Amino acid sequence: MRSIDSRRGVLAGIFGATLALTACGGPSESAASSASSAVRISAGVDDCGKGWASPHGGRQTFELHNTTVAGEEVHLENAATGALYLDVESLGADARQQATVTLGNGTYRFVCLPSDGEAALGAKVTITGSKDVAGATPPLKPVTRNELIPALKSYQTWVRGRLPVLQTQVQQLETDLKAGDLASARASWLAAHQTYETLGAAYGAFGDLDGAINGLPAPGKTARQDHHLEGFHRIEALLYGGAPASDITPYASRLVRSVSDLRSAFVSGRVDPVDIGLRSHEILENALEFELTGRTDAGSHTALATVDANLTGTREALEPLRTILAERYPDLAATERALDTSQHLIRTFQGADGEWTPLSALTRSQREKVNAQIDATLELLAPVAAICDPRRTS
Amino acid sequence: MRRDPEVTGVSRRNLLGGAAAGAVAVAAGSTLLPRSASAATDTASHQYAFEGVHQRGILTPAQAQASYVALDVTASSKAELVDLFRTITSTARSLTKGGTPPDTGLATPPSDSGVLGPVVPSDGLTITTSVGASLFDDRFGLADRKPARLRRMEDFPNDDLDRAVCDGDLLLQICGHHQDTTLHALREITRATRGAMQVRWRRDGFHSPPRPAGSSRNLMGFRDGTANPSTADASLMNQLVWTRSGGDEPDWVDGGSYHVVRQIRMLVEFWDRISIREQENIFGRRRDSGAPLTGSKEHDVPDYAADPSGEVIQMDAHIRLANPHTAHAKKQQILRRGYNYDGGTDANGNLDMGLIFTCFNADLERQFVAIQKRLADEPLVDYVSPFGGGYFFALPGVRDHQDWLGRRLLT
């Protein structure tokens, strides 16, 4: 720290600047001015979009007022293409909400979508004389539920096709254990677990059955200590922790039943179209949070095998969305390349004998490289869920 | 972008020294180091010009908060490394300026974390980017571009370095008037550069207000940095802080500075159990006033001529070893810019707190290393434990809106 005297010297030298500075507006002023300049828009059924007088290009804030008696959703769309600039969801009765957007020349309109009724279209508003607006809000062609349904069906068909494979693999695990063949049981465990990890069960997608099949030990306990734990990780702890085959067999039999239950549930269960977009980034988010930190490892040291399976699962979730994304996501090709690069990198840690390198055996720079690659892939996947969030258009 | 032409204009006129530009912000708050909650609105618009001969955060008066983040580059080619430095530059430029983050529409998550609200204030933010010796290994073909004195920080005799929290290809020293500002900057920079670098270690620090006046106190209760050279003295800064090309230094280093960071745990429970007399003898200064034991006020110069055998300031007192005030020692002076840290508790319930020792110097060997060697086995070492940090080189400043950090190193 400098001496007091030298500080005084510096301060005296720029005194003029001090005056200029203190005269400037602070952030509170600018906030106030943006509030007062907000264009008040009525967003009712009969008066949707009313209030947009003297339209102009550039950055602007609207204050949307829901004048109906129920919740609604309000869009600002391109009147020619239907592409959206704003989508204010869950606007309560009589609530006001500000939304900021930057617009160039074009014809726009508000669309008000009451939760219990049909869309009301606002009057068309044309902005002219604002060529080359900097930082204009990019429009999004909305994705509807109906558009997502074929993608969802295609994904579900793939998952449904994998469940019999999974069932065969867990049955093989049970057979190996009944035969007392621990080496084969370990190979069967890994094959079955990798298959399950491709299915996109991340963050509760399979509900309670995921807990029975692939649950983690209770906080403060290991998979070996937690006697309430069942499924892959309980079996892993026993299989790689020196337990006799006869102690493990009952857990394998239960796993076979749980997988069978999953098959039944999957046939009858309905999946929300919103899930497919979420799935395509959550599988890998889950891998980063639980696998690449080593948290799920119960002794097999196969976290990287799991990540490999998660990458396969991510591609399978993304695949049926390609048509939807092709015209909406400029980085789709980059995203697919990142998935390829990630999988290639992860597979460099599998030896010719099929053995996976334990996470803990990676050098610091190898681990940084893996984390960086998965991180970068996740950034690219993040817009997929935003784009594929189903939106109403009528 | 909300931007204040006056601030930028004044700062640009003061490009000759970060100190003057730095003082703009300080003066505007009419308090030397604004840090209280009520100061938030006063400091929000404080803006340090991003461009200049030198980077900010070196001569800039210490802001209240700092985030130190060492990173390893994971980019796999020289071209990707160039992209990384360009991205750090553009992100740091917009963060330090403040303004409204871009609207990326409905097709993406929000472009900004929103931690600082819809309009990002400058809040005295400075982002100082430095490079470590490991960046000059065989990955990017930079071996012959390495600053001559830059190397992996050695273990000094009393160190207990954990290499997991040492070194790094890059160091970002992010300082601002509030912690939300520094953490926001950290999040936005790591997001913008995702995939090209990974955090290796990090440590947040705070700069204590004057208690009641004078230099800021460290967590041993003593004032820190009293003997710093004056940052207002440009020719002194040229001698002591700014590295020059020529000799064995490569051609790109002008305006940069060797940046030393050492994470030093203070064993505060032990320290609090020793007498004030012992504490003051260890440092050679009075705890309350900061005065050398030979003097009366903080900035009195220690009078070793009148105390040749250490009757007053013992021969191995910290200040006497660090700066014996000889003609030779004048050239060894460093510019200290440390922050206190609070790291929670350790396994036996002792408080983990200490100092993020930080200094800038023109010549690492002639200055920091020479001083540090003299300090070996000083009595203070029983009460502190250096465990992390590293040697870095703060890149020269970004000259104009076309320029980017590391351009002269990489092109």
TrEMBL record, chain A:
- GO cellular component terms given for this protein: cell envelope
UniProt keyword annotation of NAD present: no
Localization, per the record, is: Cell envelope
| PROSITE patterns hit by this protein | PROKAR_LIPOPROTEIN, TAT
Q: Which Gene3D superfamilies match?
A: M75 peptidase, HXXE motif
Q: Which UniProt keywords apply?
A: Lipoprotein, Signal
UniProt cross-references to Pfam families, sorted A to Z: Peptidase_M75
The Imelysin-like domain is annotated at 151-257
- InterPro entries in the record, alphabetically? EfeM/EfeO_iron_uptake, Imelysin-like, Imelysin-like_EfeO/Algp7, Imelysin_sf, TAT_signal
- Would you identify the family this protein belongs to, as annotated? Belongs to the EfeM/EfeO family.
Name listed for the protein in its UniProt record:
EfeM/EfeO family lipoprotein
Give the originating organism: Aeromicrobium ginsengisoli
Automatic annotation (TrEMBL), chain B:
Instruction: Indicate the principal place this protein occupies in or around the cell.
Output: other
The lineage, from the top, is: Bacteria, Bacillati, Actinomycetota, Actinomycetes, Propionibacteriales
The subcellular localization recorded is: Cell envelope
Q: Which GO terms describe its molecular function?
A: ferrochelatase activity; heme binding; metal ion binding; peroxidase activity
Q: Which GO terms describe its cellular component?
A: cell envelope; cytosol
**What Enzyme Commission number does this protein have?**
1.11.1.-
Q: Which NCBIfam families match?
A: Dyp_perox_fam, TAT_signal_seq, tat_substr_1
Q: What is this protein called?
A: Deferrochelatase
Report domain Dyp-type peroxidase N-terminal positions.
55-206
Q: How is the cofactor bound?
A: Binds 1 heme b (iron(II)-protoporphyrin IX) group non-covalently per subunit.
Which family, according to UniProt? Belongs to the DyP-type peroxidase family.
- InterPro entries from the xrefs? Dimeric_a/b-barrel, Dyp_perox_C, Dyp_perox_N, Dyp_peroxidase, EfeB/EfeN, TAT_signal, TAT_signal_bac_arc
The function of this protein is: Involved in the recovery of exogenous heme iron. Extracts iron from heme while preserving the protoporphyrin ring intact.
Its keywords, alphabetically, are: Heme, Iron, Lyase, Metal-binding, Oxidoreductase, Peroxidase, Signal
Q: Which PROSITE patterns match?
A: DYP_PEROXIDASE, TAT
Question: Single Gene Ontology BP term?
Answer: iron import into cell
Q: Which cofactor does it need?
A: heme b
Establish whether keyword Signal is in the entry: yes
Domain Dyp-type peroxidase C-terminal, which positions?
A: 216-398
**Stretches the record annotates as Disordered:** 93-115
| Organism of derivation | Aeromicrobium ginsengisoli
* Reactions that this protein is recorded to catalyse: heme b + 2 H(+) = protoporphyrin IX + Fe(2+)
